[in-house]
Amino acid sequence: MNKFIHRKVVISGLIIFVFVIYILQLFNLEVIDESYKLSAINNSQRIETQYPARGLIYDRNNNLLVYNQAAYDLMVIPRQVKAFDTTELVHILGITPELLKRNLDKCKRYSRYKASIVVSQITDTKYARLQEKLYKYPGFFIQTRTLRKYNVAHSADVFGYIGEVSQSQIERDSTYASGDYIGINGLEKSYEPILRGTKGKKILLVDNYNRIKGSYKNGEYDEPAVVGGNLTTTLDINLQEYAYRLMQNKKGGIIAIEPATGEILLKVSSPGYDPQLLVGLERGENYRALQQNPHLPLFDRTVTATYPPGSVFKTIQGLIGLQEGVITPATTYECYYGNFFNGQFMKCHGHSSPLSLKGGIQNSCNPYFVNVFRRVLENNKYTNVREAYGKWRDYVLEFGLGQCICPDFMNESAGSIPTQAYYDKIFRTQNWYYTYIMSLSIGQGELLITPLQMANIVTCIANRGYYITPHIVRPMDDAHQQLIQKKELHIDKRHFEIIAEAMENAVKEGTARVAACDSVVVCGKTGTIQNPHGLDHSAFFAFAPKDNPKIAILVYVENGEWGSSYGAPIAGLLIEKYLTGKIAPRKKALEKRMLEANLIQPRIGKKKEAAELKD
Prior knowledge:
single chain; 21 helices
């Protein structure tokens, strides 16, 4: 009897133990471990991200520059994938089996239950072929999104491009997920929060072949995407197009600004590239080719590159000399192909002598501005050259040099206006003399300035003493508008009038005659910049008309030899095109020469011994 009771207790205990195990396992599956629940949901439902169309980009005349085109991503839920014909799939997609395997492994590492991108940016043709065969690939489906399309084959340095978001960017901003796109540079990056819009979602019911059967609960839990905001740029795309043609087969940059508003009318970095190259399945291969191009088309020569400004900087020297009272417009200096300064000879080209300030600018006389610089630095109201240099540097910084001045580009360089401490370290003393830094007087030496900053200098002269923050996107709200400010310089307006008249003379009968326009008064200054690595650089800045100017422009051509060779004629053509809408018949031969000139191919040229032999 006792044995029977004992057996009953044991059997009951075993039953209870097994029952408890089942209960615990069910509790684990239903409450703690969600993998089966997720699997069941994923087998019957699919959450598709609804990607918003990015905002459009227009020029100042409402010409559409950047818009969107339909594109398709092949998505996968690794948990649902079964054996499939790899050969057929890679043939349809036009990729290698190795790439497909690598991408699938990446998706598995991300999540076996969540959808992620296997192949992105599939074209319409490939999508049509794939859609017919997709039933043969369980776990795979197509997700629609939009990609950039361009109405122009240039200006990639302005627009920038978009690419897949990185893990570090996802960690910084939870609104992004793996496979999302983000602006990488240019306006796409600077205005990413506005252009990107807001993602939505759609919950779909699918069968065991991953075919869509309808919306979950009639779309009750769907969230619509919100389209990105549009940008209106300040570019004149027709002028931009013409500038790119003129800069074909040349290295350098062009910036043109509307002086009264600070709006950038054109921005050309050359050589550039077609922005469409970085869209679609071939974007990776195209990017590598651009990276390996010896002419550096990915490098923005307008806001990232820094150059010595050369003789265009003489206008600032004249203004500072006048403001400091160390010269007057009538102050003259002699020059006979150059002059000696404390045993150092500063060369120059042939011109009449002696010259006043206007003549010095008109003929781009080197010794004249060495003398001006010397008087500024040896001014008796300062205790020494070092102190006077600090005041000189303060004036220079007011022109927007040595700092980032455009809020629209995140790749802008500040350039370099050397500090007193820098020279203390170089000369190993604080008791230094003007001859130590004499090359600054003609825009050489340690000065490094971006083309945008050079364009801002001539804008200050055009406005007779102020500039508006240069910008390439028209403000969309008060916060943006507050970034656009008027910056007054501490130099009297009357001094700017003198420099403007000198620049007018330079175009009428000086070194910049090639930039003259028949019906417009152009004020300009040439620059030839010494280049230790090859032929000298050609620079020219100007504004027009002289009164109530509508355009201020800087043209910087690497290895252009003299300021009058390429900088001045290209700027003159652009000014004439913008203000009159056409090129005069007498300048057609000049236009043809500029359009056909090739400065990128190796050229034989005799190096000049000085920076400014011919401005």
